[in-house]
Hints:
The chain is mainly alpha-helical. It has helices spanning about 15-25, 30-40, 50-65, 90-110; strands at about 30, 65-70, 85-90. About 50% of the residues lie in helices and about 10% in strands.
Amino acid sequence: MAQELTDPDAxxxxxxxxxxxxxxxxxxxxxxxxxxxxxxxxxxxxxxLSAGTLYSSIRRMLEQGLIEExxxxxxxxxxxxxxxxxxxxxxxxxxxxxxxxxxxxxxSQARATGLIPRKL
Length: 120
């Protein structure tokens, strides 16, 4: 049963894992292991999603309409039928953008107060 939330701000703040998954799917469709690899690579290994965290987040995101599961592999060379591929939905992209703006605003506030230097 998909939730009827359509206002991206209603999802905020996002759990860290959910934001990382949305970012991983922003540039292309991926399967679960590819999402885990992308997150680890983008964060220089500082964020590593466990399989449990990844797949419980994916299940919730599917229910919320933030991502969708593809019926077929986007990679015609892939023959592993066990792999499930995921795609960002329009709502998922809007939610990721809203969260990125929220985080950017928080960073601007921290800079404005001198908590962190203007250039990091």
